[in-house]
Amino acid sequence: MPSEKLFAKITISSILLISILVIAMSCKECPTEPEYDIYLSVENVACVWVTLNVTLPDSGKINTFTLERNDSTVATYTCFDDDTMITDEGLTPDTDYYYTIRFLKNNQTKAESDPVSIRTLSTTSNDFFWEIDTLGHYGSYLKDAWIVDENNIWVVGNIETDSGTFNAAMWDGTNWNLIQVHNLAPLYSIWYFSDDNIWVSSGFPKHWDGSQWTMYHLQNMGLGAEVSTEYIWASSPNDIYFVGQKGSIVHYNGSTFRKLETGTDVNLNDIDGTPDGSHIYSVGHNSILPSKSIALELVNGQVDQFYYTDGLYQEGTYGYVGSVSVEDHFVYFSTPAGIWQYDFTNNTSVIMYIDEIECRRLFVEEYNDIIGYRGGMGFIHFNGEDWRKERYLENNIFSCNGGDYKDGLAVMVGYTTYGYEAIIARGHR
Fold it and tell me: Among 148-152, 159-163, 259-263, 393-397, which stretch is predicted with the lowest mean pLDDT?
């Protein structure tokens, strides 16, 4: 009996040993499949498209994955980077979608991302009803506007009347009230923070503190005799930029003015930036020979040339840049080639619209609400899906210089070409 028990123990031990050896050998022949991580996030949502970011860390140099929308495969992609941006187009406005990504290896799904949900933007209206007012008589014109709300609108320029000269006016919901700012020099632009904190420019910055106007003689501050600033942009009362003639840019930090070196003599006629002031763009062009156009990029106080062309319509370029508007991480430039959209986070560009446009001012509230004011007092508007173009409001008898846009209220300002009266067109949706 003892020998039988011993034989049984030896037999069981042998079987266990053989099993362990077989398992070990099997593991060497079939190595464990590595785990793959895959992530999907939403980069940007519009009315008819969405941009997604796909992250495949540590998954190899060449990756293949599919994009799934609402349980249907949209497309299969091959990428060479850990992070890949993809755009899904042809969507329906104001609609819910959910997306996932499947990572493929040898045509087999190795990993799948968590789903992400989006709702596309709804379209806005392309229809505007315009009310037109005139101010002053011969020699009057307006250059800029600021919308506080529909019952508080400011305009600046030069207004000649029988009772005197004015250079600003304020709409109170019923009437235009004429205003005399400082020494009555014609004004080019306005930036409104509050009733007691308003900046305007006549070539020199002027500030209203609620009780009086103060003009700042930039030349007397050692900023150069050629400095002339006509247009204003600010992220806060302590972060204000003034741009103008011969590439002039002056920054105000709430207490002192500082001239920024731009390396150009091109006249700058528009500026816009992100709300935090981290990315700012200023554009301009010389309308007389030598014709030049430029776009400058200001990042962390550093001015760099972003775009330049020697000819206003030079082949191989976008042509001259007429205006700029910044929304989120997109910069929109008005050019003869169309609305040039630049994404400064990904360094990519697209042309949104091409149809012989020329915008004096461009405003982007959101991707589904873009409006540009044309020289003949006309406009273009994008509702997120379709463009509307109006060349003239009334038989080309008006000329537009600028304006403002806020919450669906459009204000264009300029002058009448037949009598040189100042004109204001208010557009309501």
Answer: 393-397
Q: What is the pTM of this model?
A: 0.87
- Give the pLDDT confidence of 293-316 residue by residue, as tens digits: 999 999 887 899 999 998 666 667
pLDDT per residue as tens digits for the range 315-329: 678 888 999 999 999
Residue 327 burial class via C-beta count within 10 angstroms: exposed 0-12, middle 13-18, buried 19 and up: middle
Asked whether residue 17 is assigned to any structural domain, the reply reads no
Please say whether the beta carbons of 105 and 86 come within 8 A. no
Which residues are CB-contacts of 163 (< 8 A; sequence separation ≥ 6)?
A: none
What is the residue whose two structure tokens read 């004096």?
A: 360
**What's the CA gap between 83 and 380, in Å, rounded?**
36
Distance CA 167, CA 158 (A): 4
Q: DSSP class of residue 13?
A: H
Residues in the chain: 429
- Are residues 144 and 63 located together in one domain of the fold? no
Q: Could you tell me if 150 and 54 lie in one domain?
A: no
**Do both 338 and 197 map to the same domain?**
yes
> SS3 for 45?
strand
Kind of pairing between the strands at 348-351 and 213-215? unpaired
Query: What's the confidence (pLDDT) of residue 5?
Result: 45
Domain boundary among 60, 91, 119: 119
Do 185 and 226 fall within a single domain?
A: yes
- Residue 47 domain boundaries: 39-119
In contact, 234 and 243? CB cutoff 8 Å:
no
